[in-house]
Structure to design on (388 residues):
């Protein structure tokens, strides 16, 4: 589980636990540099963590900015200090083994000449592909990349993707994910299937997705996401669930005002179950949600939830709750609470849940502000078994 804590000057860090909740690693980790040393935790932000569903290990990535060691001398990365003449955001990705030890791979997924262009490129998401390679998606804010590199003259920012091998050698890309000549944005939204992957992103004030082969060949056009009976809020993806089942299904969970909605796509972008509303009978959804789908197509939706009718009360108190559905989109469980503190004892909101489902285990991480009843933020984790 990884996080960012600006008050503690933790720009991006992670810790590792086994399936019983016992720690595997000691202390907070980020990256290991090429010389075997470690940077401080304050030279980067926006951590990305993705386990390998097709094998072992996981990926850790972040938006790095202290290339020259201005925040802390140990942050300086000589191999990349020269391309970044100023401290622009740039992507960093590293492989980590199941025991929490680093692989000596330190990659960006972008050519050095590309990184030398003026402006930042933020790593938005990263993941393993079914063939063992790695795909990364980026929010490219470099000047003139749209008109000069991708024939998108009006796009001041772009959504890009790049495929590399496990050692970081670029195999395909970087290529534009978006087709439309407009500003693109993404903070989260990459999922993988068997032989393909999908990207969910924002462009021109709307929500979109697009699917590719492992060779970064488009399987679909850019698909604008419309729900038949519900109006979607535009989103860069940090509050949206977007998950593949490592086979041929992709789950999207989005908040729609006081409720949420789930959609299951195939790799051709077809909505195969229709729009599935997730409407609580006695409460209100609020802010971010997430979802996970297993290899059989069963899925779970998790969200911030206030079991009240008053919209005013939801601003002050909430818990983390979830509901599980079968592969046909039918509810398998009622709404159930993830957090242990009863709603009536909450003093504020528990927020920002993230979820993963693999091998019958479901893990939920969220920002807990009620356990110690002081409104201080704590990173909380609960692990439970799926009912299938």
């Amino acid at each position: 589980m990884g996080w960012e804590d600006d008050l503690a000057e933790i720009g991006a860090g992670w810790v590792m636990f086994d399936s019983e909740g016992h720690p595997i690693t000691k202390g907070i980790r980020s990256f290991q540099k090429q010389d075997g040393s470690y940077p401080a935790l304050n030279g980067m932000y926006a951590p990305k963590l993705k386990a390998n569903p097709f094998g072992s290990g996981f990926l850790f990535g972040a938006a790095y900015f202290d290339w020259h060691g201005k925040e802390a001398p140990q942050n300086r990365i000589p191999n990349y200090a020269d391309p970044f003449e100023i401290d622009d955001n740039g992507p960093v990705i590293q492989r980590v083994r199941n025991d929490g030890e680093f692989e000596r791979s330190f990659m960006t997924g972008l050519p050095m000449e590309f990184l030398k262009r003026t402006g930042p490129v933020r790593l938005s998401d990263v993941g393993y592909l079914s063939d063992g390679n790695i795909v990364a998606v980026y929010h490219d804010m470099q000047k003139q990349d749209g008109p000069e590199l991708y024939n998108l003259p009006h796009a001041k920012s772009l959504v890009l993707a790049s495929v590399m091998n496990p050692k970081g050698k670029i195999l395909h890309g970087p290529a534009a994910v978006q087709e439309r000549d407009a500003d693109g944005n993404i903070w989260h939204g990459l999922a993988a299937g068997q032989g393909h992957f999908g990207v969910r992103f924002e462009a021109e004030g709307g929500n979109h997705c697009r699917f590719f082969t492992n060779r970064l060949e488009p399987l679909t056009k850019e698909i604008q996401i419309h729900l038949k009976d519900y109006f979607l809020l535009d989103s860069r993806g940090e509050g949206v669930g977007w998950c593949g089942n490592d086979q041929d299904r992709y789950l999207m969970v989005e908040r729609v005002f006081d409720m949420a909605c789930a959609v299951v796509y195939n790799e051709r972008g077809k909505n195969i179950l229709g729009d599935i509303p997730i409407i609580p009978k006695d409460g209100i959804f609020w802010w971010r949600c997430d979802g996970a789908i297993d290899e059989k197509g069963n899925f779970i939706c998790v969200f911030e939830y206030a079991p009240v009718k008053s919209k005013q009360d939801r601003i002050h108190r909430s818990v983390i709750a979830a509901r599980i559905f079968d592969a046909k989109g039918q509810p398998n469980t009622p709404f159930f609470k993830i957090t242990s503190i009863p709603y009536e004892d909450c003093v504020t909101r528990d927020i920002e849940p993230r979820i993963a489902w693999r091998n019958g285990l479901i893990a939920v991480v969220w920002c807990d502000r009620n356990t110690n009843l002081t409104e201080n933020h704590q990173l909380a984790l609960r692990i439970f078994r799926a009912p299938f």
